[in-house]
Amino acid sequence: MSYIVLHMDKFKKEAVRGIQSHNNRERESHSNPDIDYERSAHNYDLHEPAAENYAEAIQNRIDDLLLVKTVRKDAVHMCGLIVSSDSAFFEKLSPEDTRRFFEESKAFLTEFVGVKNVISAMVHMDEKTPHMHFLHVPVTPDNRLNANKIYTRESLKKLQTELPRHLQSRGFDLQRGVEQEPGAKKRHLNTREFKQQQEALHSLEKEAQAVSAELEQRQREESALQERLQSIERQAQEAEKVLAEQTDIPKASMLNFKSVIETAQEIIERQKKALAAKGIITAQNEKQQAEIQSLRETVTALNTKIGHLKNEMEEDRKRSGVSIRNLNSTNQNLLARLEETEKFFRWNTEAAMMRNDYEREQRQEAQRKAAEQKRLLEEIKQQERQQQADKERQAKELEQQKAAELERQRAEREQQRAQSLERRPRGMGMGR
User: Fold this and answer.
1) Which residues have a Cβ under 8 Å from the Cβ of 222 and sit 6 or more positions away?
2) For residues 383 and 45, what is the distance between their CA atoms, to the nearest angstrom?
3) Mind listing the pLDDT tens digit for each residue in 29-55?
């Protein structure tokens, strides 16, 4: 089962503009390579904006409060909640169900903060994992601007517990994240670390599922081989029984010699075929057993690896409360630094050359990594082709062995028939 991701951040007045720029994709980000701007058209806001921008909407809401005291310069003007889960969760959802997931989350959070305080509920579909940025003005029930009164340790725990319960009641298969232990040192995972952990876990789980499916197929093949082997053993037993019952075969005479010989040869031939097939099936069964054992060991190793990774993630969740460091809070600083850097490069020719060299090196490194990845992919494909060729060769060798055995048995029958004719008394059947 997947975990709910619910992360809260607080923003002061100077950060609001940067948050809006990021959410609405007003300019291309250089700090988040996971954004696919070709898919940005699929993003959508579940909240109808009440103003032209975030700052105006916040100020309008503050004005409605009719506060006696002036708002402090360092006051929190806006709070943000990121709602998401892992990629495996969204892969099982249709686009309609994905939208319904965020609509249900938005409805629950709106009831928690108050509909008048909601600014935006932007859903991003242009990154690896869909997520929603739910933004609101932190207004208390007694109409005060105070984020600390809204988001206490107790209220956050309650929110992180009740939101997944609400979504479960709406048919979504997920659960609450691991609660942080009291006194544990809190370490926020950045977005890239979190995504890497989720993707690694998902990849291992897929691999384990594939190996398990192959193991089940091998077990079905083993069962079929066992049934064939049992059938052949029954045939051999029947042939042996018939042969034993035919020990009193009458001596060949002029009337029954041929039929007696043919009957005996038929029984012997049946027994030989059964025993030969039994040997082939037994060899196949032994090979199948070895492959099944290898697959079982692979499954065990993968499950162990998955368990270790899950334990590591559980430890991270215990330390960080399964939270993602909000990119929006850092984006403002990055944008400011970027502007300063661009100004520096515009006025410094030498620095511009250094930047060009750096960008060229980065492009070359990216090309090298792409070539290495392509080479590895080709090696994997070559291995798969070799494995397929080996399987076809083995199947061909088995068919050849079967044909050779049948030819040998036919030659033996011909030889036995010829010998029996040579031993036949001359003149038999010639009356005077």
Assistant:
1) 285, 288, 289, 292
2) 47
3) 766 677 888 999 999 999 998 888 999
Confidence of residue 411 (pLDDT cuts 50, 70, 90): confident
Q: Which of 303, 317, 294 is nearest to 209 (CA)?
A: 303
The number of residues making up the chain comes to 432
Cα angle, residue 256 at apex, residues 255 and 261 outer, rounded to 5° = 145
d(CA 334, CA 414) in angstroms, rounded, equals 91
Statement: 186-325 belongs to CATH 1.10.287 = yes
Quick check: helix, strand or coil at residue 26?
coil
Handedness of CA 268, 274, 279, 280 (dihedral sign): positive
Q: Measured between alpha carbons, how far is residue 156 from residues 6, 9, 166 in Å?
A: 10, 12, 15
**Could you tell me if 271 and 243 are in contact, meaning their C-beta atoms sit under 8 angstroms apart?**
yes
Task: Please indicate, yes or no, whether the overall pTM of this predicted structure exceeds 0.90.
Answer: no
Residues 101 and 91: their CA atoms lie apart, in Å, by 13
- Residue 40, classified by CB atoms within 10 Å of its CB into exposed (0-12), middle (13-18) or buried (19+), is middle
Are 113 and 136 in contact by the 8 Å Cβ rule? The answer is yes
Task: State the DSSP string of 281-348.
Answer: HHHHHHHHHHHHHHHHHHHHHHHHHHHHHHHHHHHHHHHH-S-B--HHHHHHHHHHHHHHHHHHHHH-
Domain range list for the chain: 2-177, 186-325, 343-422
Scanning the structure block, which residue is given the tokens 């029996």? 420
CATH code assigned to 2-177: 3.30.930.30
At 32 the three-state DSSP class reads coil
The string of pLDDT tens digits covering residues 161-214 is 999 999 999 999 888 865 655 555 544 454 554 555 566 556 556 655 665 666
The three-class DSSP label of residue 256 is coil
**Highest mean pLDDT out of 219-228, 282-291, 363-372:** 363-372
Long-range contacts, 267-275 (Cβ 8 Å, 24+): 267/239, 267/242, 267/243, 268/243, 269/409, 269/413, 270/235, 270/239, 271/236, 271/239, 271/240, 271/243, 272/409, 273/409, 274/232, 274/233, 274/235, 274/236, 274/239, 275/236
